[in-house]
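# step 3/5: fold
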Amino acid sequence: MMTLIDQDIAHITRVMRPSLHGDLGGPILPPTYWRQRLYRLLDTDHLSKSQLCSIDSLLLQLEEFVRAGIPQRAAAAESTSHSEIPGELVSP
């Protein structure tokens, strides 16, 4: 049985990378958004070892993306205030 946390991890796994690569305008959602989502999951009580490993893997993928030299347009999106991101996208 999949828990809500497992479902959230699976969702982030599916959409984080395409969202970071975005389109010609840059990332759809910036790395800071994904980092906050993942840290919120880490703050959850009673994560299993499998869940911790999945979240850690996603954080490593995120850091690799940032370290690989995101284009200037992505760097500009990184500084976007989260208040500018629509509310329905911010909630897990």
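# step 4/5: annotate
Helices lie at 4-21, 31-42, 49-67, 72-78, 87-90.
# step 5/5: archive (pending)
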